[in-house]
Design brief:
three-stranded antiparallel β-sheet; 1 helix; 3 strands; flat
Amino acid sequence: HAEPVSWDAVANLQYEDAMGSDRLTITHPEKGWLGAKTTTAKLPGISKQRAEIKAALGSFWQRHQVMQQFTSAPATE
């Protein structure tokens, strides 16, 4: 059972198509012993929904990035 990952703990996403099990690699902002800290999730049995899953991930990722830019921008009056 995988633990949820907050969008604030995501620096980048990489989705890899595969014959047996697609894979999602999450790069975190903090560093590990050998460079960037990552979490990899295997996604078996979802090849038929691959396009929808990629679209949803992309949409949520873009929305979070826009929100971060908006909240870190200096307030204007």
